Amino acid sequence: MRSVGRQVLIAVYAVFAVAAGARSAVQLATKYDEAPVAYLLSAFAAVVYLIATIALRYRGPRATAVAWTAISIEMVGVLGVGALSVADPDLFPDQTVWSDFGSGYGFVPLVLPVIGLLWLWKQPRPAPATTTAD
User: Is 131 inside a domain boundary?
Assistant: First the structure.
């Protein structure tokens, strides 16, 4: 069962990497001058989603550490940008993936890092390496 949950999590991250990346690429190419910060934030979100996707795909301590880092950055980003965009809508003249806590994407950007971090938390941790004296 854990394998299915992992595959679904990876798939959702991959979809968001593509969606955020494609959207920001079009926006940066066609209307950069209108809201460069918003479009660059969406591009940054796409990179974070891509890194999380790749890190979740692999197993091992390094991949797990990268996944923890990427998903934690995602959580800080969606909470920070979400709060700023609600408090002062003029800061972001156009929507980012994380604006209004991801309302433009059905709030999935707000829920996804929570699910990702919980999933990582529940994963078995390897036993610490021990050495034996002969």
Answer: no
Instruction: Specify if 134 maps to a domain.
Output: no
Three-state DSSP at 96 gives coil
The count of structural domains within the chain is 1
Structure tokens at 7: 């595959």
Confidence category of residue 134, pLDDT binned at 50, 70, 90? low
Locus of tokens 């991801």: 102
Domain span including residue 103: 2-122
pLDDT higher than threshold 50 for residue 2: yes
In tens, the pLDDT along 53-91 reads 999 999 899 999 999 999 999 999 999 999 999 999 888
CB 49 within 8 A of CB 74: yes
Judge whether 109 lies within some domain. Answer: yes
Residue 99 to residue 20: CA distance in whole angstroms: 12
Position 130 in a domain: no
